[in-house]
């Protein structure tokens, strides 16, 4: 079993949340972990862990939707800088439905700090970010503000686009909104491709200039994917950005059952990732063993094949940092 775990990549975990010492993280048998930052207060510890174990830990920095109000000022107080947001060219508005992308990149301290961290760590990804339509603020008993979540999410997506970083995305009870959002982004990308083709530019050319990049992150990991198999298939089939989606599974969130099995079976083999999603290193090995076994059983693979295939997929997801498509 240890040999199988050595072949595994844990693409989403929160080990700095409650692991007693960082040395415990370094002793884990898995090949690599992607360590999530979820709020300003834990970015420094995520960074410290990645620096201490550079061959094992890939850092991820972001604002979790649960933290979008407590960790970030209300979006009504944000100011905008003078850099036009590349995700919404001014002549595409008639081509999309009702996408809510801001026209200017917000100029706020938390976002500036996030950008600085990502620039400092070229291997880092953006995460955990996203939207949650079910979680409640324990202090008020109210659902977290969706308006605030959306603004924080979109600001971080813009940063991922600007810096060409993969994204680890949280999506709970918002799958219709997310599907709508990604379909609109796909329309924008398709419009841009068509415009360039009409202007006589070969899209197969390897563009190097920032303005030539598609306004979408190089890869999106749908973390602990809980949507229907139909939604997963629809994302993969998006004509312009579908190749950038990966889907990760964990037993702590996805558990077992027919819907889980249907989801795992429906995802292309080269887009499946596995994760622990645990907060303590003491639980990481058993969580990875469990999800590796579950995916192996569903797909008809051995555990070793599952570890190797999902690690190859994780490497492709991470390599997308330097890809211009």
TrEMBL record:
Binding site residues for a divalent metal cation 2: 170, 223
Annotated residues for binding of a divalent metal cation 1: 12, 14, 128, 277
Alphabetical list of InterPro entries matching this protein: Metal_Hydrolase, Metallo-hydrolase/TatD-type, TatD-like
SUPFAM superfamilies tied to this protein: Metallo-dependent hydrolases (SSF51556)
Alphabetical UniProt keywords: Metal-binding
Pfam families in UniProt: TatD_DNase
UniProt GO molecular function: hydrolase activity, acting on ester bonds; metal ion binding
PANTHER family: CUT9-INTERACTING PROTEIN SCN1
Name of this protein: TatD DNase family Scn1
């Amino acid at each position: 079993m240890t040999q199988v775990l050595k072949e595994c990549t844990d693409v989403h975990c929160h080990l700095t949340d409650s692991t007693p010492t960082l040395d415990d993280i370094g002793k884990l048998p898995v090949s690599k972990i992607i360590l999530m930052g979820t709020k300003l207060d834990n970015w420094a510890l995520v960074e410290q862990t990645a620096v201490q174990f550079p061959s094992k830990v890939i850092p991820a920095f972001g604002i979790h939707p649960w933290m979008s109000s407590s960790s970030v000022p209300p979006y009504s107080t944000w100011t905008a800088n003078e850099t036009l947001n590349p995700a919404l060219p001014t002549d595409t508005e008639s081509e999309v439905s009702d996408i809510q992308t801001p026209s200017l990149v917000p100029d706020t301290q938390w976002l500036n700090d996030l950008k600085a961290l990502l620039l400092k760590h070229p291997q880092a990804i953006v995460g955990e970010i996203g939207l949650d339509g079910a979680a409640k603020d324990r202090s008020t008993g109210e659902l977290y503000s969706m308006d605030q979540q959306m603004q924080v999410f979109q600001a971080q997506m813009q940063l991922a686009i600007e810096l060409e970083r993969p994204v680890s995305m949280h999506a709970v009870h918002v799958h219709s909104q997310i599907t709508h959002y990604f379909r609109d982004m796909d329309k924008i990308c398709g419009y841009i491709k068509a415009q360039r083709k009409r202007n006589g530019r070969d899209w197969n050319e390897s563009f190097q200039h920032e303005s030539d990049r598609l306004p979408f992150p190089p890869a999106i990991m749908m973390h602990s994917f809980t949507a229907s198999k139909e939604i997963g298939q629809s994302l993969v089939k998006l004509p312009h950005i579908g190749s950038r989606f990966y889907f990760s599974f964990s037993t702590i969130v996805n558990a077992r059952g027919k819907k889980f099995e249907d989801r795992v079976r429906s995802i292309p083999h080269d887009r499946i990732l596995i994760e622990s999603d645990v907060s303590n290193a003491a639980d990481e090995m058993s969580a990875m063993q469990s999800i590796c076994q579950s995916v192996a059983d569903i797909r008809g693979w051995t555990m070793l094949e599952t570890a190797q295939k999902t690690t190859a997929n994780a490497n492709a997801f991470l390599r997308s940092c330097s890809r211009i498509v």
